[in-house]
Amino acid sequence: MEALLLQVLNGLDKGGAYALIALGLTLVFGTLGVVNFAHGALFMLGAFVAVSVEKVLTISSKVRDESITFFEAYKETPYLEIWWGDTGSAIIDWSVPISIIIAIPIMLAVGIAMERGLIKYFYKREHADQILVTFGLAIVIGEIIKANFGANAIPQAAPEIVAGSVDIGAAIGLDGVVYPWWRMIYLAFSLSIIGGVFAFLHMTTFGMVVRAGMHDRETVGLLGINIEKRFTIVFGLAAVVAGLAGVMYTPILPPDYNMGMDFLVLSFLVVVVGGMGSLGGAVAAGFLLGILQSFSSMTAVKEVIPGIDQVIIYLVAVAILLFRPRGLFGKD
To answer: Distance between CA atoms of 184 and 182, rounded to whole angstroms?
Structure first.
């Protein structure tokens, strides 16, 4: 039971990342009809916002090390610690949560600029054209990140207060079920963002107009509503969702220039399995495939079927699409 619970938790936090990226992909496809292969790059950009914030907060100067008295020695000390002491150290320690606030306007601006500067010219083009141009954009973004940050992964630390693990088993009568705090926080964060997106779409006038436009853009336009402007904002919001997912994932997986591509392929598979254009399907499929991938990575499973953890998602996708060609929640 302990092992099963751990695998469920692993699958849920991984599925949370898949679901957040797939949710943004589905929003863009459902509103604009665009297959955006640059969406994984937005996830990566969010991660590197966190990297950039940490680098800015730790800009340092050489300060004499007072602990060494028999000769003059200097150490690199961040300016925040020089100016504000323990308060400055706490700000640096909380760089990832601080990055969330900074990432929101940055990712919104990036998303709107991407939609206005490039994507809008491909609304009426074939999906193959959309895939080619957005895939090319993703490669360009990745190379820019590589040129500025290098090819190696850059570890990011969670705040010290949540850097350890929590004994989940003690609360439910199981022994040895210890799980990292930050992964629990990421799962809660994913669920809150998903809930916020659905609340926005179903409980606000703006969201209801967007949903109406997803079903019948022409009729909404005839009512005098500038649906194109609203869709641009939705593209920006999808970029924000992907970016925040990337920011929060940095303590779990050190970001590198290729992480967007790694998550993009799996997230597109999630969208297809859930049903193209189905927001609920994207979320459900994200968590489902995350859990399946987690269970397939167990040693006992891999001993029976070697390499199953590498292909389980694709096998499940094939099986589902054979019986449900439009996905789990796709409309026939």
So the answer is: 5
296 — pLDDT class (breaks 50, 70, 90):
confident
Provide CB contacts within 8 A for 4, sequence distance 6+. none
Cβ-contact 115, 21 below 8 angstroms = no
> What are 147-171's pLDDT values in tens digits?
999 999 999 999 999 988 887 766 6
Burial of 228 (0-12, 13-18, 19+ CB in 10 A): middle
H/E segment holding residue 92: helix 86-93
Q: How far apart are CA 14 and CA 204, in angstroms?
A: 30
| Reported confidence tier of residue 263, pLDDT bands at 50, 70, 90 | confident
Three-state DSSP at 60 gives: strand
* Mean pLDDT in residue range 299-311: 81
Per-domain residue ranges for the chain? 2-51+96-323
Number of neighbouring beta carbons within 10 Å of residue 248: 27
